[in-house]
């Protein structure tokens, strides 16, 4: 005999104390099962209340902010994201966007899609922060897409932890006329404007009523700044002109001129000299006019004025100028720095754990901040005290070696100094202060210890403002937030030189993975760890593979690869869209 299953529900009001009754009967030919559940009785068990989650507010959706969000365990915190742009942009490919090699939408990923993959209740607001109040732990924001009842679109957001990852703006060095007359290359919108401007210059130079001098002026493209961005843009523009636009504008293509202006003696000064020399030689062969040792002092609508010690002031007419000379601090960050006593600094100063100095609960990553590495000589007396466990007033090599690992972690410049001087260990360093340190029993007093470590702080270095640094900082900070509760009970950092116990986390350490400098003509210079230098076509294919791999989604990865393939087959698009 086959039985069926049925569901019967009785609403409240039948018996006191019972709001509803659920009866389920399920049976088969071999037997049956009856289950009762009373969900509304007076004796219902109260669920324990979970403690409220700490609120983490993230400013910015660039490399640092997005990497932090992708690695953060959002179940542990109430996460809120505020940014004036609702997408992440793969900024290393912006020069490719200017020439049509890659389309703008191929290098952007909607931030809400990134947050959706994380799960949880992460909130996003498209707005910009214009003031940080560290005393009350609130930030003042202004919406870009709507207004409130007062019509100004402003609102307040409070925080327990604030992660400032707003990047930086281009530094004009207060040069007159730069903001009004030059293009920048920091955002996707900048790349789109440059692309349209290039095509406008060619179309304007093709008009029938212009003389040759006016055509030359319109086709003179000036790039100010010989860093990686300026060099890559100049190379990308040269490829666009020679491979595509020369076929579309044959009558004026011989009038095109590209100038690269750099105040230093060489371009790409952060690269190995072999790469610098190759880049300058290649640009010379390609017809790109590289002017080193020139400082731009004024930019007008029609001319750029530059100075050189040998020639004095020189003014040259131009059709389009791109300014790429470094980074500057955003206005609200400048005001924030004044509030916390950092008014005389260029960017926000953080400690080795990315915490903004003199500011509770605020972290800063990416281009808007720099790590202020603690110097050994500032703590030399405390280091001596911690190492001198027997309180004898002297240190043996063995006593130093007992805390050497903690010193290496807390003060990485010590290890860098030993490596730069080709020293095998602390014994070699001590030998420089005291004649013979072959035996562990050799002792140093405080003055001899100071002498031994007096030069190690020369190895303190500032990190470059690159996507690679910001990404690693975001990943590190997310890992710290994920382990914050456990680290309170089981700290994993080095010994506290000033204080008791250990630091909760190991300090941030940047690991340089290499850098590229595309030079046009399907040639790229690569400088990888271990002093490995590669220049040529093989490095270009390495550049393709690395940049495709580093895309944050399969969607953008496929779009970028398809754009490269399209360019190989059909060339670059020259439409003024």
Automatic annotation (TrEMBL):
Gene Ontology terms: cellular component: mitochondrial inner membrane; peroxisome
Recorded topology in the membrane: Peripheral membrane protein
Domain EF-hand: 375-410
EC number: 1.6.5.9
Reaction catalyzed: a ubiquinone + NADH + H(+) = a ubiquinol + NAD(+); a quinone + NADH + H(+) = a quinol + NAD(+)
GO molecular function, one term: NADH dehydrogenase (quinone) (non-electrogenic) activity
EC supergroup of this enzyme: oxidoreductase
SUPFAM superfamilies: EF-hand, FAD/NAD(P)-binding domain
Annotated InterPro entries: EF-hand-dom_pair, EF_Hand_1_Ca_BS, EF_hand_dom, FAD/NAD-bd_sf, FAD/NAD-binding_dom, NDH-2, NDH2-like_C
SMART domains to which the protein is assigned, alphabetical: EFh
Pfam families assigned: NDH2_C, Pyr_redox_2
Family statement drawn from the similarity comment of this UniProt entry: Belongs to the NADH dehydrogenase family.
PANTHER family (alphabetical): EXTERNAL NADH-UBIQUINONE OXIDOREDUCTASE 1, MITOCHONDRIAL-RELATED (PTHR43706:SF47), NADH DEHYDROGENASE (PTHR43706)
Name this polypeptide is given: NADH:ubiquinone reductase (non-electrogenic)
Biological source species: Zea mays
């Amino acid at each position: 005999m086959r039985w069926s299953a049925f569901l019967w529900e009785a609403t409240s009001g039948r018996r006191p104390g019972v709001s509803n009754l659920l009866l389920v009967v399920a049976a088969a030919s071999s037997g049956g099962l009856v289950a009762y559940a009373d969900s509304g009785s007076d004796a219902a068990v109260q669920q324990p209340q979970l403690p409220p989650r700490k609120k983490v507010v993230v400013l910015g959706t660039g490399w640092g902010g997005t990497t932090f969000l992708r690695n953060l365990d959002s179940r542990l915190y109430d996460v809120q994201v505020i940014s004036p742009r609702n997408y992440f942009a793969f900024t290393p490919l912006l020069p490719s966007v200017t020439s049509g090699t890659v389309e703008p939408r191929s290098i952007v990923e909607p931030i809400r899609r990134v947050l959706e993959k994380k799960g949880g209740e992460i909130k996003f607001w498209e707005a910009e922060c214009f003031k940080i109040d560290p005393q009350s732990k609130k930030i003042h924001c202004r919406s870009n897409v709507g207004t409130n009842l007062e019509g100004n679109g402003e609102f307040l957001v409070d925080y327990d932890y604030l992660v400032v990852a707003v990047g930086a703006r281009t530094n004009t060095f207060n040069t007159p006329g730069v903001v009004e007359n030059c293009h920048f290359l920091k955002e996707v919108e900048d790349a789109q404007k440059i692309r349209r401007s290039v095509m406008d210059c060619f179309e304007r130079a093709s008009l029938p009523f212009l003389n040759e001098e006016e055509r030359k002026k319109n086709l003179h493209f000036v790039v100010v700044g010989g860093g990686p961005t300026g060099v890559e843009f100049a190379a990308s523009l040269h490829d666009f002109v020679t491979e595509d636009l020369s076929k579309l504008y044959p009558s004026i293509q011989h009038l095109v001129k590209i100038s690269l202006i750099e105040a230093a003696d060489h371009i790409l000064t952060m690269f190995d000299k072999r790469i610098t020399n190759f880049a300058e030689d290649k640009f010379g062969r390609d017809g790109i006019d590289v002017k080193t040792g020139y400082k731009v002092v004024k930019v007008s609508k029609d001319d750029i004025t530059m100075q050189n010690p040998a020639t004095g002031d020189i003014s040259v007419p131009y059709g389009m100028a791109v300014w790429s000379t470094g980074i500057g601090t955003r206005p609200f960050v400048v005001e924030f720095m004044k509030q916390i006593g950092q008014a005389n600094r260029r960017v926000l100063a953080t400690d080795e754990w990315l915490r903004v100095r003199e500011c509770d609960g605020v972290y800063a990553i990416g281009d808007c901040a720099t790590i202020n590495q603690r110097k050994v000589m500032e703590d030399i007396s405390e280091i001596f005290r911690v190492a001198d466990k027997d309180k004898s007033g002297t240190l043996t090599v063995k006593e130093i070696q007992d805390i050497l690992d903690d010193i290496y972690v807390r003060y990485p410049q010590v290890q860098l100094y030993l490596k730069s001087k080709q020293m095998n260990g602390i014994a070699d360093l001590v030998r420089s202060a005291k004649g013979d340190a072959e035996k562990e029993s050799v002792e140093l007093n405080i003055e001899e210890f100071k002498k031994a470590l007096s030069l190690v702080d020369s190895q303190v270095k500032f990190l470059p403002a690159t996507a690679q640094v910001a990404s690693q900082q975001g990943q590190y900070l997310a890992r710290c937030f994920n382990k914050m509760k456990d680290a309170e009970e089981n700290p994993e950092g080095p010994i506290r030189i000033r204080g008791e116990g250990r630091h909760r986390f190991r300090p941030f350490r940047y690991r340089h993975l290499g850098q590229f400098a595309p030079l046009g003509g399907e040639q790229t210079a690569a400088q990888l760890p271990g002093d490995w230098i590669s220049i040529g076509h093989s490095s270009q294919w390495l550049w393709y593979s690395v940049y495709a791999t580093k895309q944050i989604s399969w969607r953008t990865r496929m779009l970028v690869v398809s754009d490269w393939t399209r360019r190989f087959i059909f060339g670059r698009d020259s439409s003024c869209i």
